[in-house]
Amino acid sequence: MLKKIGEWIFSFYCHPDFREDILGDLEEHYRSNFKEVGKRRADLKFFLNVLLLFRFSLLRDTWSSLNLIHTTMVKNNIKMAYRSMRRQKFYSFLNLTGLAIGMAACLFIAIFVKDELSFDKHFEDSDKIFRIASNLKFGDNVFNLSFAPDPMAKTAKEEFPEVVEAARTRGNLTQLISYNNNYIRQDHITWADQEFFSIFSLPLLRGDRNHLLDEPNTAVLTETTAKKIFGEEDPLNKVIRVNDQLDIKVTGVIADIPDNTHFDYNMFITMLNRDDASRNFWLGNNFTTYLKLNSKEAKEVVDGRFPAFIERHLADQVKQMMGVDLKDAVASGNLAATYFLQPIEDIYLYSNLDFELRSGGSIENVYLFSIIGFFILLIACINFMNMATARASIRAKEVGVRKVLGSLKGQLVNQFLTESILNSLVSGIAAIAIVTLFLPFFNQLTGKEIVNPIFSLNGLWPYFTVATLIVGLLAGVYPAFVLSSFLPSKVLKGEMTQGKKASLMRNILVVVQFSTSIFLIIGSAFIYSQLDYLQHKELGFNKDQILVINETQLLGDQIQVFKTELERSAVIESATISDFIPATNTYNDSPFLSENATTTDEAVSLQIWYVDEDYAKTYDLKMADGRFFSKEFASDSTGMVLNEAAIKRFGYAENPVGRKIKSVMENGSTYTIVGVAKDFHFRSMTEEIQPQVFFLGNSTGSVSVKFKANMTSDVLAASESIWDKFSGGKPFEYDFLDDIFSNSFNDQVRLKTIFSVFAGLAISIACLGLFGLAAYVTEQRKKEIGIRKVLGASMTTLLGLLFRNFTILILVSSIIAIPLAWLYMDGWLADFPFRIALNPFIFIISAVGTLIIALLTVGYQSMRAARRNPVENLRCE
């Protein structure tokens, strides 16, 4: 459809001598785009090319005779538009400000949406690269994973002819890196296959792409990481040390991975350094696995081959390790393993699996912000229309005089459209300035690293230029036809009136403006309330005054002595050693069976945490039954502490302490329940509390310190001093648990702030338009106001008369906006297992608040009209 419209527009304006050749070139370019980007985007590009080709030199001969496009007339129209803007400085300022802010907001959203849609498309053959994902069912446990088994990459390449290349990565770690006795804490480190760099076209700055990770003890660094470790020194073939345990040679340096990528690695260590024990283990899903196919259409073929492929390779190990027949377990519904391919271009916006490499976006948010951007721009255009019609009576005599002197309606339309386009162009330039000025703030707001795309090679400027012209035309076409339709015989006598249709149109436009504004205000209020609820909800553990000391595995066998020294400090109440801390999205699950279970189909997956005896005391965990681990009980080495969610899953509602639990994976090892901990939020607040088990173990990952109130600087000084005694000069790395907890809400905080900003912009722009409409209404009703005042009407009566119509419009806007906001927010809140209720008070206060803001905006014009001397309003009679 869009292509046909473009062809019609081109045929309409293009000279016949040029039409066939240019249309042929456009068609050839269209076919090329059709193959590369598909029909929808090819149609859009064809339409934009038609608009961008518009120029006077291509116009038909019949057009050259029309005064509407005559150069002299165009110059005159521009001059008249400029004079009109100078004469009406205040209204011109309001027009330009509203339109510029609206266009800037729309442009910011366009930049945001363009970046969101660009993820992973910068890779060569990105449409042929896929990640293997899985949906697993184990009894009542369901897992949606972004991982696959270790052997799957190699085996898929061997057995599927469609697979050109396969590669794995594992982990997204933070490690201590040393070079020349200088230590840094480096994040986003992964193990990777050599083939990873054959699949992903990451720009290589140093090294041989074919031999980056094909030898043990080798690594590839990003440019920033290399400079962080080596400074200006050439990193190639230099040896770094990881965690004081592993010496690694740098074999390559790549450019920093673009921010619009679904992974954010800074260092790749060869997979050849891993223990080979799991190389043929199909029951563990721990590897991010990528396949590059010979065509994007081959995805359906590979997906269709997965069921037989999985059955062929998993059956023996399921029988051996779990004691069940795979076919029977699948048929009974107790076991399922479904693997499928995800296009990497879809991962960021469409995937919501466990173990994602970074926080993803949301295609729903892309749609939402696109709609918001459209409506904010629409509000700005509506303002322009209302401002223009508000000044209709002022310009009516100008129109009448021009018509008496021989101006045609088309010439007047052309003049007013020229004014509109000039306003739009000036506003567009101002919008670009606003975007350039506030882009750093916008990046901070959205968590992105976008450079100004307006004038870049692949930027938005062609689209923005066309959009600016279209905005000028659309915003100006209604006022142009309204103003040019005045009859000279009436306007020169002062009898100019506008009909009910014009009034209805303006009212509809105002309702659209304020419906959008109220919707955004309600959305902002609910997002704020939900976020506040999550941040202040009872967690089940203490997050305040907890210092987490990282990388304590570097202390080796000195870690217990280190903990003891910490506990002796006067500012420290307790300390605990563990590999896991609450409020982090850590996963370490394994299946377990109750003592009454007869088959592995009844297994329950538990999150396993290895801790010491002081964990519950340090984090203030509450016990629902039994006790936590204690040094007084030697039997605790075979004991376990479950949370309430796990007890429910095992069906141990009564007397759970002393009952047995058996591991499926550890050769049937049996453990005794010594206690039940009350549920606490050990992962994100956006997830249900999962079944969890604590084991007493030799953890070394971190030491958590509970310190006394108002002693933050003291505990840091004391902890670092003790660290220096044992660390041998290694850096002291730490976090505060409340900061970790707060950071887990970053995505929601950004959404709240973005909603609030755009809600503020929408209501501000709408109020500018309302100000213009109030000016129009008071101008139209000035004689009525004068007569009422002469007859004794009070100020209150006159204000009520002027406020009534606007109050009705806001109420209608509320009636439209509230159900839409209710539906949207109910859907948004449904994603949270712990959520607030839809409080009617928020809807009411949003509507009332908008009404008050609107009436205050109208109040200036209304007070001015009500106070005016009736003689001024009536003297033209």
TrEMBL record:
Q: Sorted alphabetically, which Pfam families does this protein's record hold? A: FtsX, MacB_PCD
Ranges for domain MacB-like periplasmic core come to 92-300, 544-694
Membrane topology type = Multi-pass membrane protein
Q: Mostly located where?
A: membrane
What residue intervals traverse the membrane? 90-113, 366-385, 421-442, 462-487, 508-528, 754-777, 798-824, 836-858
Q: Name one GO cellular component term.
A: plasma membrane
Entry keyword set: Cell membrane, Membrane, Transmembrane, Transmembrane helix
GO MF term set = transmembrane transporter activity
Compartment(s) where it occurs, according to its Swiss-Prot or TrEMBL record: Cell membrane
Q: Does the keyword Membrane apply?
A: yes
InterPro entries, sorted: ABC3_permease_C, MacB_PCD, Macrolide_Exporter_MacB, Permease_put_prefix
NCBIfam families from the entry? perm_prefix_2 (NF038404)
Protein name as catalogued: Cell division protein FtsX
Question: Which organism is this entry from?
Answer: Roseivirga echinicomitans
